[in-house]
Amino acid sequence: MSSIQLPIAHFNDVYRCHQKYSSPTPRPSAPSSTDKADKKFENQDRFISAAQFAHTLLTARAGWQDSKTKKDTKEGLVLFSGDVFSPSVESTITRGSHMVPGNHDFGILSNIIDTTTNKTPESLKPFLILERCGLKIGILGLVEKDWIATIPSFPDTFEHVSMKDTALKYSQILRDPDGPYKADIIIGLTHSRVGNDIALANEVGAVLGQDGKQEGLDILLGGHDHFYYIGRGIEGWENWDRPEKFPGAEEDSSCLVIKSGTDFRDLSTFTLNLVPTPDETHKRRYIIQSVDLGKHHEITPETETDEGIQHLIDSLLSRVAEDLERPACYTMTEWNCRSTSVRTDESPIGNLFADILMHAGGAKKKEIQADCVILCGGALRGDSTYGPGQINLGDILEILPFEDPIVMIEMSGAALWDTLESSLSKYPAQEGRFPVIAGLRIVWDSSLPPLSRVKSIHLVTHPKNKSRPTSPGKDSLKILVKPREDGVGIEINAPKPDECEVEVKREKGGQMYKVVTRDYMAQGYDGFEAMKDSAYTSMDDENGQVMSTLIRQYLLGATFLMRRKRLNDYIVHSESEEPTKSSNTKDSSGEGSQAKSTQSREISTSWKAIRDAFLAARNEHMSSVDAVGGEALRKTKRIPHPPPHTSSSTIDSASAKNKVDQNRVDVNGQPRQTQDMKFFVQGRNRQVLKELGDDVAIVVPRLDGRLKDIGRK
């Protein structure tokens, strides 16, 4: 018997039908930012669509041979490893009307049993047998146990069976030479983290060099992780370079594992080169000799589009497209929402959202102020980068698509410790439970065993009144804006706030802490069992609002306050800068270089500024700034001056100069520490910065060391 070539296309974890394109530089597979196409469009918003993904997939499939036995069938397989459409902006707005009727995340679910029937849950299949290229191919669907904790609707009567035991059980059934199926190979479609995929591959023989004498699976095609990964049993993969070290993949020496990215951005195509085993003493009739012609297809704005599918997408989403493009804020720093960032470390965007939610329940005098916020990295979606520049309403909904309410609960010190130990226990796996915090300062050690990594937890308070400083300047960012011919250079100097830290002791009695979190977490899902059964305070599952609404509420309030101010309310001063070229030199905006100057601005980041914004949004008439509620925002005359601060406190530019030196010392008279950042705004965004400075809220997400890992080198 000769070898057989089986072509396969694989993808996983797809959500958004239409999305803003950002160059995926953190991923090993990313094209260089110096590509000509990137340079041509570097100053424009660019988008990709599921219709481009469809064209890529259909083009690859068209190259396969037609089936000799089945009409309209190709001699290959298109396989999908779970998670489709939700959460996403589209699913939030269309309420699922854009989904295919009868669609399931898993049509095949092999290792979940309904204990009321002792069978696979109704409407799902325990396995599938397909025939391609003269082969009988078994397909299993396997999920890791941790996946169950992320499903609020998971029935109590459903029971998880280990992936290994299930794989070996069905291998015996499907490969039985005297049985009804006589499978030649078995493919596992998994929905689990890369570390669990690799462990399973080693346990069930999905490795290169398998002799075929043991039961098991031949190859694993995985989902759940939102990155691209090719196991070390596979060589020569086009458009993907394997890094020397890959977190979670330390036990991979020769595994046949493929994980195909996320979100209609990535597609894998490859061919299994299968050779028959010599005799009937082997459990497996065929083994994988090699995986050939492997290619990572990365969807870019230049990828050709399937017009039929694009028309369908446009017709479904056109009614909301205009509102989603409305500006929500302007960010001076990048929002990195990739899972490699928000699920493994402290992130600027996580800090910003958590700081805002500290005041979600305390913007009114009679409401209770939170002690801290504990969210999870899995709440921040999009898996892309946004800004620096304008952030639209669609971006906010894309990043925050979940619809469970934000609540406030009371927890003991012991429960806080247990919660944070659990949320840090899965690192380096990119689990959604990774913590996003405010009001706390945590020191942990990722090199220690899980559930023993937290070294200390402190509540961050102000020495006098347990709140952040409220006076202008003392808690403000100093921003230097230096116009350049090819853009605008921006340097940010952020003084360390005046604060003190109170230790949170790991004890069940004593002080109780008011914690803002998602109701999903408060119900104990995704590893947050320590939160379960905690008492609600001022915000519960009935009166709490969804996270995207609260963030937008803050941004609307901040915008409203900015538009209420006049020039003498802004903290702005300028310092002359000598022109670098002759006076007749023009910069990219058409202005002479003599007009260039270094502008210094201060934007208040105090917690009082956040509270003021919430109060404005809740108590003022917001139609003039509500991006969805009317056209007044776009019609109001702009004030052509640099960005203002967001606090309601006022100070004129002359007094600002007198206060600069005073603001360089803390409450003890010691020099204040600063955290500096530098970045660059290019091309189109340079003009946007100028135009939107007084039009929408300006935010500056940044790191401040609130989640410090002492074990990571």
From TrEMBL:
<protein>
    <submittedName>
        <fullName>5' nucleotidase</fullName>
    </submittedName>
</protein>
<dbReference type="GO" id="GO:0000166">
    <property type="term" value="F:nucleotide binding"/>
</dbReference>
<feature type="region of interest" description="Disordered">
    <location>
        <begin position="573"/>
        <end position="604"/>
    </location>
</feature>
<feature type="region of interest" description="Disordered">
    <location>
        <begin position="630"/>
        <end position="659"/>
    </location>
</feature>
<dbReference type="InterPro" id="IPR006179">
    <property type="entry name" value="5_nucleotidase/apyrase"/>
</dbReference>
<dbReference type="InterPro" id="IPR036907">
    <property type="entry name" value="5'-Nucleotdase_C_sf"/>
</dbReference>
<feature type="compositionally biased region" description="Polar residues">
    <location>
        <begin position="581"/>
        <end position="604"/>
    </location>
</feature>
<dbReference type="GO" id="GO:0009166">
    <property type="term" value="P:nucleotide catabolic process"/>
</dbReference>
<keyword id="KW-0378">Hydrolase</keyword>
<keyword id="KW-0547">Nucleotide-binding</keyword>
<dbReference type="InterPro" id="IPR008334">
    <property type="entry name" value="5'-Nucleotdase_C"/>
</dbReference>
<dbReference type="InterPro" id="IPR029052">
    <property type="entry name" value="Metallo-depent_PP-like"/>
</dbReference>
<dbReference type="GO" id="GO:0016787">
    <property type="term" value="F:hydrolase activity"/>
</dbReference>
<dbReference type="Pfam" id="PF02872">
    <property type="entry name" value="5_nucleotid_C"/>
</dbReference>
<comment type="similarity">
    <text>Belongs to the 5'-nucleotidase family.</text>
</comment>
<feature type="domain" description="5'-Nucleotidase C-terminal">
    <location>
        <begin position="339"/>
        <end position="459"/>
    </location>
</feature>
